């Protein structure tokens, strides 16, 4: 239940109302005051003051002064008139409620309007700032353009001047030339006959014809002057050929530094391909078509191995390798044959070559790599190189840890090594 | 030393002209404000267009159509009065045209079996001494020198040895033509070979390989004792050779620069200053360079032979004008800084390079 503040004092003029509200010790802030056109409320919990004003006021311009335990309101009336009282006398509850709500609504609207207005002014300020910078930039740009334009015009004027000089010069020259030449025809004719004897040009025929043409020359002066100059020129060069060698280049395209690496690689691959085709061509010609296919040969080899014909299998693999030395399985299988044939060193060689070709080590070639390690390991052990053999077995285990056979064999080898160590 | 920012030469774009054909070469007509564009029309014929620079635009004066597309042209071997244009076309024909009466060529020969990639002329325009000659380099691997007074056969032929597979010759240039007898031809090929042929002794004087196809070679001056040679190549590189000192085994000293990622299509020396040159690139850019000589241009090696010392390069300016390669470039011999360039975006541009006096 709020405590109503009722000890207010007021006085009025025609245009304003002055209201003094003691606060009974409570501290007021602007937030506690709520004022609309016809409704005034001061709420400092638990204190409450409420007034439905007699007539509407201009709430935007009205003021409230807080101080000395007092709020002093200066309310400007909307319509200048003397009020009978501060508040509406017969205010019933409903009217009160309505007015309150109305007041609140109005206040909200006002607040909204104010924020809108603020936004608009902010935008306008921004726009103004933008325009100002744009103007400055525009001016700067124009200044540079003007400088350029001035330069251009200056240069264009110089050009025109030069051009006119040219034209004038040309005309002058041609007039002068004509005059000079007409004057000189006679004495020059004589000079020419003299020159005939001294001329460096060996061809008698041509100089004779030239003389003829000069005698009949009344027209184009240019031919005349040309002839004059020709006499002072050496004869056409004696024709000759210079043979040229070029820095070799396989490609018909132009040389570009950035492409050299690519081109080298391409050539290298081409050379490799050719080598395979060309190697021992005579022998290979005897083979049937299928025998030239490394895969077919590999299958043949595998079959022979299965049947126990180890030498035959080796032959098949050998031929396959000659045709394509980049297939790891050929070496792998040949290693198995060599193991059976007890060609241990060859078995090691082939297993090693197979492993080389089985790079990069990926899941796809796991089984092949395991086999290669095992075969090589076996070969080492049979040569009594147990440490090396163990290395290979352990490598095989690393790839395939779940293989019991390999594990068993590895254990055996370890024992063997320990045994020999102990005994030595 | 780099020039200060405000004093650096600026490349000002003066006129831009859109063309309806592919332009392969552009050349100033000597002693005039006129220029030529040479190229290939869409229907597979050759075009020569003559423009005049009028104010801020190019005025088309003449258009000449020929049966085969034209790849290159030069005024180098013609007199100032005649100003005949020598052209090489896609079919291997060398023609010399009188532009006032272009219906029939003044000289014509089917010089090569394949396209003539590059052409140069010397002995004309009142520059230097000796007979005017034209050199052509072709895809058929040969380089031939022609004298317009001699029909049908070249006066020099640099061809592959019997059985040797040919390489494309991409560029040719005359040099060392300082008196009536001396003359050299430099040729660049697609396999990176550069060969220097001496026409007086009719022999190969020097060769080297710069590891990238050679797009353009030019001496700084044709008519002096050979001084510097610039060779540009694929992969954005170019080399400047000091041609004054030839070492018996090491050849000529050089400095090289990698200016951009793409092909450097052309190099052209400024006619008014032989140490300044412009390179044009496949990325549509132009770079203006200055060569600085070293303190000593030659020194002795451990065996006492003279060898050259290369200098250094500084980049004066660069500008990007197009997204397509700028394949041709020509300085005006009459107005310092005026140049024309043609690009594969079917545009020819007239540019003015300012402040060249201050270099």
From TrEMBL, chain A:
InterPro entries: CS_dom, CS_DYX1C1, Dynein_assembly_factor_4, HSP20-like_chaperone, TPR-like_helical_dom_sf, TPR_rpt
Disordered: annotated segments: 192-213
Residue intervals of the CS domain: 3-87
Residues making up the signal peptide according to the UniProt record: 1-28
BP GO annotations: determination of left/right symmetry; epithelial cilium movement involved in extracellular fluid movement; heart development; inner dynein arm assembly; nervous system development; outer dynein arm assembly
SUPFAM superfamilies in the cross-refs: HSP20-like chaperones (SSF49764), TPR-like (SSF48452)
Positions in coiled-coil regions: 130-157
GO terms for cellular component: dynein axonemal particle; extracellular region; neuron projection; nucleus
Keywords recorded for this protein, A-Z: Cell projection, Coiled coil, Cytoplasm, Neurogenesis, Nucleus, Repeat, Signal, TPR repeat
Species annotation: Donacobius atricapilla
Molecular function in Gene Ontology: nuclear estrogen receptor binding
TPR repeat start-end pairs: 370-403
Name of this protein: Dynein axonemal assembly factor 4
From TrEMBL, chain B:
InterPro entries associated with the record: WD40/YVTN_repeat-like_dom_sf, WD40_PAC1, WD40_repeat_dom_sf, WD40_rpt
Pfam families membership: WD40 (PF00400)
Entry keyword Cytoplasm: yes
SMART domains linked to this entry: WD40
WD repeat feature ranges: 134-156
Keywords: Apoptosis, Cytoplasm, Repeat, WD repeat
Subcellular localization, as worded in the UniProt entry: Dynein axonemal particle
Record's function text: Key assembly factor specifically required for the stability of axonemal dynein heavy chains in cytoplasm.
Protein name: Dynein axonemal assembly factor 10
Name of the gene: Wdr92
